[in-house]
């Protein structure tokens, strides 16, 4: 990766616009500029990811509460239980609990978020990088040699965090909570009455990390209905980090609706592909998310239920012509199997007849069942150029807002429909109609170029200058709610597919900062939302249940109140200074007038004296 890009340190704004002056003053009082990171030789991709993670309160709280605090409690508990060979046993325990990665990550992110007021501060990620094992895959990521480096380094961070969580998990001696059992060797199940107190169900407590329990009947529809709620079966899915959420996938026949149940999966980010037909256009984040959830049609797939129905028609015809006992028995077996909610593959193979196979289309659909506390979105800009037969970068602009309401792309477990002939979420059409314009209504900036004029930034080698004047911070119009997430950071890539430079925009102290390694500038939100070359986006759960408002909005309101007070104070001070200057000017004018009067009187007196002398002569 080339590092020919200009990473000069930007000077603080000196233009004394009233709002800019007040904002700068308030920001300095609140703690000032964030810390920067030195570029240790093509490490901008690491620096941008680390700055983005530092902007997340969920990551910081997770490191403190779920890892470091639990490590301290575990060691303290073991220390108290040691009776013999205390020093030797404690040393053995400490060596087992290796959480250096989380410790160094927490320390580094804390340093980046620290208060430096009006001073510049830059540090290195060296101590953190030393805790990452130098395996084959990690070595390639740390060295960095292509455009995917930021995303790969991000995945490395997640992997190391998961290792630390597992270390805590094993040291605690927990089994995931409750009396979990495997049903027929397939999926783990636990009765509702045995669920732990901290069990996460549906989309409640989206800011929490833990084990989510999904109704087992959604995963295996053949599970018998429970006679009461207490005996209802649930299956556990462990969320390891704040970046983990759960998606649900449904694959089913578009003719009969048959499917094998919902397939839940833990995910740690969404990767969105840019359409190949748009190489330099303008796209919407909402449109890319719609493409992500759009059903994929798989042609020519054998459907067990449709095939059995064909076989049944044939058997009924045979029985009507000749009541052969074996044919009647086979028909009864087919009817029995068709009465099941899902056709068992092994039972189907016994009855399968090559002459009566239904080749149909199946629909593959995915939705988010539980969004993570911190949602990472990767914009995959790699595409195949048919002219050069090489992989190149798609430079299309992606439009996004400061808030993202996830309702159109999510579903609660209770709203899932197994029948593939119908929408996967029974409220899907209602949600789409209600929220389809949210992405557009909240965009309050105009791109610098028209879609046809968007420039290819492969040859840009300087970052744009920071704004001379900062604009008032606005609250986005997107309705508040648990599924409305707040934009916390953006990673931008300048350059081509094989080389370039990464920078981060991140939110801190209510303001947006543009960070290019050690170069930091305070910027307008409109610059963030209008920037080309978006590579990664980080949206965070930000809903305050007590006030039913977004936490960031509350911060902005308080920040604006402080800014208004400072502006009023500065205005009063300026008016007072102006009044003093005017009085001083008036005094100087009076003094000048007095001097001039005295000089005039002296001149006139001299003339009179000369006239008197002439008259006397």
Automatic annotation (TrEMBL):
Pfam families: UCH
Biased composition (Basic and acidic residues): 448-457, 577-590
InterPro entries: Papain-like_cys_pep_sf, Peptidase_C19, Peptidase_C19_UCH, USP, USP_CS
Highest taxon listed in the record's lineage: Eukaryota
Annotated EC: 3.4.19.12
Leader sequence segment: none
Start and end residues of each USP domain: 35-542
Keyword Endoplasmic reticulum belongs to the record: no
Sample GO molecular function, one term: cysteine-type deubiquitinase activity
Reactions catalysed: Thiol-dependent hydrolysis of ester, thioester, amide, peptide and isopeptide bonds formed by the C-terminal Gly of ubiquitin (a 76-residue protein attached to proteins as an intracellular targeting signal)
Keywords: Coiled coil, Hydrolase, Protease, Thiol protease, Ubl conjugation pathway
Gene Ontology biological-process annotations: protein deubiquitination; proteolysis
Region described as Disordered: 448-470, 577-617
PANTHER family membership: UBIQUITIN CARBOXYL-TERMINAL HYDROLASE, UBIQUITIN CARBOXYL-TERMINAL HYDROLASE 30
Family the UniProt entry places it in: Belongs to the peptidase C19 family.
Entry protein name: Ubiquitin carboxyl-terminal hydrolase
Organism ancestry: Eukaryota, Fungi, Dikarya, Ascomycota, Saccharomycotina
């Amino acid at each position: 990766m080339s590092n020919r890009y200009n990473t000069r340190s930007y000077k603080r704004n000196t233009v004394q616009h009233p709002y800019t002056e007040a904002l700068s003053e308030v920001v300095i009082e609140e703690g000032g500029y964030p810390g920067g990171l030195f570029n240790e030789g093509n490490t901008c991709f690491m620096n941008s990811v680390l700055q983005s993670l530092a902007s997340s309160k969920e990551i910081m709280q997770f490191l403190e509460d779920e890892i470091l605090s639990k490590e301290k409690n575990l060691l303290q508990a073991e220390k108290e239980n040691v009776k013999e060979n205390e020093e030797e046993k404690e040393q053995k325990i400490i060596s087992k609990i290796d959480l250096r990665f989380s410790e160094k990550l927490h320390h580094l992110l804390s340093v980046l978020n620290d208060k430096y007021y009006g001073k510049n501060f830059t540090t290195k990620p060296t101590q953190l990088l030393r805790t990452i094992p130098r395996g084959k895959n990690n070595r390639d990521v740390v060295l960095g040699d292509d455009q995917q480096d930021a995303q790969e380094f991000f995945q490395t961070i997640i992997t190391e965090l998961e290792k630390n969580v597992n270390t805590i998990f094993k040291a605690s001696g927990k089994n995931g909570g409750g009396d979990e059992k495997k049903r027929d060797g397939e999926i783990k199940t636990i009765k509702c009455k045995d669920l732990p107190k901290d069990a996460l169900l549906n989309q409640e407590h989206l800011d929490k990390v833990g084990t989510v329990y999904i109704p087992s009947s959604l995963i295996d529809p053949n599970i018998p209905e429970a006679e009461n709620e207490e005996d209802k079966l649930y299956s556990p899915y462990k969320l390891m980090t704040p970046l983990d959420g759960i998606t649900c996938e449904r694959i089913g026949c578009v003719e009969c609706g048959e499917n094998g149940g919902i397939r839940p999966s833990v995910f740690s980010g969404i990767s969105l592909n840019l359409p190949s037909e748009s190489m330099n256009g303008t796209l919407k984040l909402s449109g890319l998310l719609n493409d992500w959830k759009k059903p994929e049609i798989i042609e020519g797939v054998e459907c067990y239920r449709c095939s059995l129905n064909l076989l049944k028609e044939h058997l009924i015809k045979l029985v009507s012509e000749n009541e052969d006992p074996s044919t009647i028995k086979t028909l009864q077996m087919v009817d029995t199997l068709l009465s099941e909610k899902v056709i068992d593959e092994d039972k189907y193979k016994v009855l399968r007849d090559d002459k009566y196979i239904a080749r149909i289309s199946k629909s593959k659909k995915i939705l988010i069942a539980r969004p993570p506390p911190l949602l990472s979105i990767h914009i995959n800009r790699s595409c195949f150029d048919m002219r050069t037969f090489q992989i190149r970068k798609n430079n299309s602009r992606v439009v996004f807002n400061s808030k993202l309401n996830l309702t159109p792309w999510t579903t609660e477990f209770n709203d899932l429909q197994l029948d593939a002939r119908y929408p996967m979420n029974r409220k899907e059409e209602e949600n789409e109609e209600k929220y389809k314009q949210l992405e557009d209504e909240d965009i309050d900036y105009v791109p610098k170029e028209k879609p046809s004029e968007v420039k290819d930034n492969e040859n840009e080698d300087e970052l744009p200058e920071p704004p001379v004047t900062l604009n008032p911070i606005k609250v986005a119009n997107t309705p508040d709610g648990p599924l409305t997430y707040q934009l916390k950071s953006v990673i931008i890539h300048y350059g081509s597919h094989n080389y370039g430079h990464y920078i981060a925009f991140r939110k801190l102290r209510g303001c947006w900062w543009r960070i290019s390694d050690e170069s930091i500038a305070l910027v307008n939100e409109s610059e963030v939302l209008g920037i080309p070359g978006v590579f990664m986006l980080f949206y965070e759960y930000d809903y305050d249940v007590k006030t039913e408002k977004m936490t960031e909005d509350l911060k902005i309101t308080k920040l604006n109140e402080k800014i208004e007070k400072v502006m009023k104070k500065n205005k009063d001070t300026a008016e007072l200074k102006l009044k003093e200057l005017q009085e001083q000017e008036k005094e100087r004018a009076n003094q000048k007038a007095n001097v001039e009067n005295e000089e005039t009187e002296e001149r006139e007196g001299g003339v009179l004296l000369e006239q008197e002398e002439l008259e006397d002569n």
